[in-house]
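Aim 2, interim progress: modelling of the NDP-bound target.
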Amino acid sequence: MTDILRKLAARDPGEKEFHQAVREVLDAVAPVLERHPEYRRNALLERLFEPERTILFRVPWMDDRQQFHVHRGVRVEMSSAIGPYKGGLRFHPSVTLGILKSLALENVFKNALTPLSMGGAHGGSDFDPKGRSDTEIMRFCQSFVAELFRHIGPHTDIPEGDIGVGAREIGFLFGMYRKLRNEFTGSFTGKSLDWGGSALRREAAGYGVVYFAAEMLAARGESLEGKVCLVSGAGNVAQHTAEKLVAMGAKVVSLSDSSGAIYDEEGFDPAKIDFIKRLKNIRRARIGEYVDKYSQAVYLERDLRLDHNPLWKIPCDCAFPCATEHEIQRKDAEHLVANGVRLVVEGASMASAPEAVRLFEERGTAYAPGKAANAGGVVVSGLEMAQNSMRLTWTAEEVDRRLRAGMKGIHRSCLEAAERYGRAGNILVGANIAGFLKVVRALLDQGLV
Ligand code: NDP
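Predicted structure of the complex, ligand included:
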């Protein structure tokens, strides 16, 4: 297996995030490969780790001062072995091909865990939406989709939101797509309810994270009631994780953005969460403004020179990293463990660095990776696609029921797979094995394509 990693590193030396993602999969599925030597034949693993297609394109656009800019657009179509490509679009200056490939691989496994089988993809651009006007965002999205539209479609590739791509961006992307294609098809998910969206799609990833955490606790005879929870991030996933945690009786004391974190020892309530939603989604302001209104709260400014994030030093029962990948480093994990954290559930994909995950395993901290815990987003995306195909709309209650059942099923699949291969209780290993088996069997069935 090290030869696979060596070859990947030699071919694409700059893609260390992708190499890390591959290593995680290979480590987790080692017991499967031991039991099934046939999975090492026919270049099955090599095929799994090479995207079926990678599209790189120029995105030229003009700002409000009539200055021209050129960004790079990317879509990594990793695998369509079990369904059409599905995955987010990310607009953030940190975007690289290595990051998008690692997210696309993550989605291959995550999407395989959901009841509606879908393939895996991810895409985006190094464009920074921060501080841009609505018209600038619209022009950028239109230019982006003017190329992407050729490669996507309801049976081919169905993008959705991710960091920097929310309801506003999906609207602009879909509008231009519809015009260019001259057809109204569900080729994006996360659409507004008024024009083809599903109830609860916006809430789905965060709500799903909490349902997953509730399953993990229930397996230990516990519940979220009264648990002190840290949530990081203040975007889509973080807001809805915090909202559902509060609704289920937990005490949520933090949120953050890339500038810093807020710590409200009294805990959030629905009114405070509404305030944060308005602050971040409508005013697009910084999370630090929370303490101007709620003076009992503390603002912890982020110091990028530190090798840890002060947020994770706050004592808690449960931690929900919901901002970005590798936001929990080894040092952060040490603080969490020293303060007695019992449960770490990732809302963000690959939120914990590998050394942090190792520490959680060593110390017996219950840990769920994003590829299992944040699958609620893609579960409801699948439901949105199903509603679009049938041209009907389910109620929020119906979607919530299916989301909750979906998360319960994913939790059960992870535990069963881990148990079957001698790693009982390890959700990281179980998620990788369950997803891996589904995809490699499809690859074997379908021949060398
Ligand atoms: P948003 O853009 O809505 O929010 C991201 C939040 O994280 C913002 O508060 C942002 O701060 C913060 N953040 C982003 N980058 C960094 C960084 N480098 N350091 C510190 N903070 C950062 O994104 P989402 O909530 O949609 O996504 C968050 C995570 O969840 C991602 O890992 C994504 O892949 C994952 N995810 C999202 C799904 C979805 O449906 N949206 C589904 C499944 C997973 P600021 O406001 O300062 O930029």
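The domain at 2-185 is CATH 3.40.50.10860 (Rossmann fold). The chain has a mean pLDDT of 96.
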